[in-house]
Known about the structure:
Blueprint: H1 26-44, H2 54-63, H3 70-80, H4 95-109, H5 123-141, H6 168-186, H7 201-211, E1 240-241, E2 248-249, H8 254-261, H9 269-280, H10 292-306, H11 314-323, H12 339-351, H13 381-398, H14 405-421, H15 436-450, H16 456-469, H17 483-495, H18 517-545, E3 560-561, E4 565-566, H19 569-585
Antiparallel strand pairs: 1-2, 3-4
Amino acid sequence: MTVEDLRVPGAVPRGRNTTPEPGAPREESRVAAAAAELVASLTAEPWGQVSVSVYETGRLVSLAPWLTGHAERVRFLLAAQRPDGGWGAPGGYALVPTLAAVEALAAELGRVPGASGTPFADEAAVGGAVRRGLAALRRWAGAEPGAGRGGDPRVPYDLRELPDMPAVELIVPDLLARLNGHLAALEEGEPLPPPRGMNGGKLALVRTGLAAGAAVPQKMLHALEVAAEAASKAPGVVPTPLREGRAAAIGASPAAGAAWLGGPGEDSPVRHYLEAVVDRYAGPVPCAAPVTVFERGWTLSWLRRAGVPVAVPEELTAGLAAAIGPGGVAAGPGLPPDADTTSVGLYTLALLRAPREPDALWAYETETHFCTWQGEEGASPTVNAHVLDAFGEYLRLAGTGGRNARYAAATGKLSAWLRGRQLPDGSWLDRWHVSPYYATACCALALGEYGGAESADAVRGATRWLLDTQREDGSWGRWTGTAEETAYALQTLLLTPAALPATEEAPAEATTEAPTGATAGAAEEAVEQERRAAAVERGHRRLLTMVTGFGEPLDRPALWHDKDLYYPAAIVRAAVLGALHLARRHRP
Length: 588
């Protein structure tokens, strides 16, 4: 059987019922309608539906005040400031967006009327925001008299405790140097110190290489703005044309594009890209755009895995297939191909019954696991879970014989590596998302479906952790209960095998004794099933109060990692709709 033989137009994955029952209740009809609208939006908004970023917007305020929408970007920064003076999420996640916002607003204060870019009219508002932001930074750094280590204990200003965000070791020294330069000009106090354990050595090497015309690693382009003047028209950087129009991007990043452009300049493809982004988002900008393949892969896979009844246009399926080349596919133009976007795309194609042999993923194999991209520092459990999904679903359709034996062997290797990364409490953590509920969902679902009997204990540990960490109101969440994290928990509870591993049967004469062996196992399984059912019922009820009637979360906290945290609206909504569909189908 060939891959072409497996293409069944309109078919759905085996074991995933996507046909509504006769007389399906109103909630299920709403989910189906919402899913259809969501899938249509993937075509209507091909650049993606992700939240704007304080960090990226701040860099445009600082680097490109001449760009359309400058006043809107300043207003966005002012409105996003927290009561404590910072920006962004709790803890160390606040450092980068706060540095970016304060640096940008301080640059705005120092602009001369009539110079490049018109200074924001409300100087008092900008100045007040800068002073409050500086006070927060000094508090966190322990630089405020009497503040002590870290000042605010929720925000550790220490390299070892900062989140593992892309290019953080380059971004923070660059922003600190820029901000300290503004402080001297504005006479706003002593320079801010760097986080403990961080220095600018790596940043200096990057700038030196760029200035000398050295080739730039593709993954570096996403944060090219850290290179300062060396980024401007750097000979080692080539813009990546977008498929439509005259635009070209630098590392899929507005800030990187502004740094490379260096000023308003001529009528260039990179300027067209910047203008297109700020027009789509009405001023403020996201960290990455467009993210077409990334968004479509994750959105369609969450819907299909949960069995949500939705038709996927051939245009989406064909576009996803065409995007994946021999070396995989990148999340955005100018970024390097990566195993995460590639594996989710391949898995989605398999769920859509348009499978492709996942041989592009071999380029990311290491001795122990699969890397996100070549030269990755660290490793990602969710990336490896997604590779396991891609291999496992392909093998389900194509079989394990012949040349596919290599994929079968790799599923065992991936499963063992994922089991080894599980934390003692049963959860997983990952470098691409704030929440352990996302990482645990990715890993437990992959292991439960493709990890074999050896993974049963790991999956059971994950579900028990979910049962133990459900909040009193029925939700789940790292900082507070969210619709997104509650959806991940529900999908994990409803899509992973419920039965415990088989145990050795007790002898017949022992049935009158204390429960042992199979008897104890059955009793334990019954208790866990009852806990699961109760948790799902409570979680479902709570999730319904956290979303609109069509599955749109009422609150949208940014939980996904880029240079700043972001919220991928279409992907999260797909996870929520999947959870609502599954929970409704499993109600007694």
